[in-house]
């Protein structure tokens, strides 16, 4: 009999892969629905070749690789961070928008993220980035003297020249005061539920019973499903499988496997193939009321005892401790 916990956990892992792979598509769809100006900008970038177009999900090179899919999601968030930074937003605003800690924002601005492309490594090597928020704050307070601001940054440890300070001041003078277009744009983005999620967070919305979700979680889930046909299909199939698991409806397993094959989602097809290899045990786990949870608990207890004996785990002593514990 297959363990029902591990069946659900395996499904969770594959759905997380799908969401990580779809993150860029969902983000672009959400931006186009909340801001026509941003959508036009994205189209212009695609025509100029400055960003890569979203490839069909069935042919995506990241399909079937959890590590690469999660790294792609992280890289997408880093690019969003750098875009907001170039527009002059503070680290606090960026952290609130992307749903990450300010410490992470500072780390990404100064050191970037692992395995980034040479272009990103060049961008993040600028020594001025950690001090941009301070200059913007002083600008909003009324300070316009570039030489004075450069001296203040030197007192804080800045090693670069004054040209970066003057260049950043020129960008601020072009229109980044409170209440401007950029502030309104940030507020618009914040109002979009599909922009504020990660695959690791959203996967639980796909697995849990819809009635157990909070109102904000349901809104974010609806936005994600509407933004991506792949996410919508994955949600329907995941909920159908969890329904079989919760209510012991194993007789529908063959129908579910056929739906997965017709979905053309590579991650779920891998999950279906793993089920097919041990189908009798999975069918028993989805049909019978009995559970092998007790066996799994004993195995976990045995592993705990082994870890406690790190460095002295010879079999005779292990045997005595296991017998004593049970």
Brief overview, please?
This protein has 326 residues and is mostly helical.
Question: What does this protein look like?
Answer:
The protein is an all-alpha fold and 326 residues long. The protein has a domain at 4-195. It contains 18 helices and no strands. It has helices at 4-34, 36-48, 66-86, 91-98, 102-111, 118-124, 132-140, 146-155, 163-173, 181-190, 199-207, 215-227, 229-247, 253-263, 266-277, 279-287, 293-308, 315-325. The radius of gyration is 26 Å and the shape is elongated.
Q: Share of helix among residues?
A: over 70%
N-to-C span: 24 Å
By secondary-structure content and strand pairing, the structural class works out as mainly alpha
Assembly context of the chains = single chain
Task: Give the count of helical stretches.
Answer: 18
| Main pleated sheet | none
Rg, alpha carbons: 26 Å
- The backbone outline, from C-alpha atoms, is elongated
Q: What is the averaged pLDDT score?
A: 76
Work out the strand percent. Answer: under 5%
Number of strands: 0
Unreliable stretches covering 5 or more consecutive residues: 33-39, 48-64, 116-125, 176-184, 187-191
Give the SSE string.
HHHHHHHHHHHHHHHHHH
Topology, pairings included?
Blueprint: H1 4-34, H2 36-48, H3 66-86, H4 91-98, H5 102-111, H6 118-124, H7 132-140, H8 146-155, H9 163-173, H10 181-190, H11 199-207, H12 215-227, H13 229-247, H14 253-263, H15 266-277, H16 279-287, H17 293-308, H18 315-325
Keywords for this entry:
mainly alpha, 326 residues
